[in-house]
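Reopening this ticket.

The earlier resolution said the output was attached, but the attachment link was broken on my side. Pasting everything inline this time so it's all in one place.
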Amino acid sequence: MTEKNSRTGRLISRREFVRDSALVASLAALPPLVGGETPAQKPLNYNEKMDYRRLGKTGLMVSAVCLGGHWKRIGTLIRGVTEKDEWSRPVLNHPEFIKNRSDIVSYCIDAGINYVDACNANEILAYSAALKGRRDKMYFGWSWVEKEPREKEWRTAAKLLQGLDEGLKESGLDYVDVWRISVIMPSSEHTFNEVYEVVEALDKAKKQGKARFTGVSSHDHRWLKIVIDEFPEQIEVVLFPYTAKSKELARENLPAAVKKSDMEVSFPNTAKSAELPKESLFETLKKNDVGVFGIKPFASNSLFKGNSALDSPDAEEDARRARLALRYILSNPAITAPIPGLINRHQVDNLVMAVQERRELDRKESAELEKAAEEAWAKLPAEYQWLKAWEYV
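Inline output:
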């Protein structure tokens, strides 16, 4: 990674930039690392049928499967609930939608699921309403992406904190449990100044009591590795893709020789591409005791044959595929929890069933999941081709 020196115009390395930048002075004000491991806390909303995992150095014990913010395919359950596409713009005041979100949150709470992650304005408003009066039953993960660095005007600490304040006021919340800022997808596009602004915003929000814990969501391996190592105190939690095709990168599972074109995956809506990683991210995660939420566990529903409707002829097969994928993901102890979106009670029950089944897949199950994952990879829509960059992590 390089940055242009404002005085000479010369491209300088990250280390030179950190050494020479006036921003180093502001970094000195950041809190020092606390020695030792943060002890695990008592699980919130405990249910004996659910497993709980420590969310890295936060010490929070979160359910082994959590509630993701997306409600993809909800149109198969509630006709006319979306304005344009099948999930991103629901009619938030639609009575059936409001009831559905409240019912799903209630059902998750009953099942011992204790974390919900929301990553845009609609999701935050929907889930803050659904949790009204029972905020103590679930941890709330937050990213108001419309007021975060994917939009250029929201790349300073002042603007990020402004967006957080505005969002808290609009949603009626006093604080969030995890503020995990969504950076731009090809995150290496960020300048170092922008990274420092993100870190400063996270640090101030925590000091002000507006965020209990902090982190980022990124789709860029190498950027995550650098930022976690550089700012281990502020990056307590990260979100990145982890699917049934994902595996920990090791020398033995990366081809010895690949064409450069095979090592690059394009990001949607940009002219940028991401090179596949050359070293595992998990070493950095373990070293810095970072909690991990795995997004896109079902490869944006490409893993499934049907449309997620309850009366789909593929419903039983798809439920089995979901359980196999979750068991596979949970067999990696470095992943705290996958966070699939849920639209009906059957899906919640299926998650609980996956947790209760044995972790390790037998040979037959592994072959079955591998075949399903290959099918998912083959039919990934154009806007999700970047997921292929996360086959090795």
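Reporter confirms the inline version is readable. The two ends are 20 Å apart (CA to CA). The chain has one domain: 54-390.
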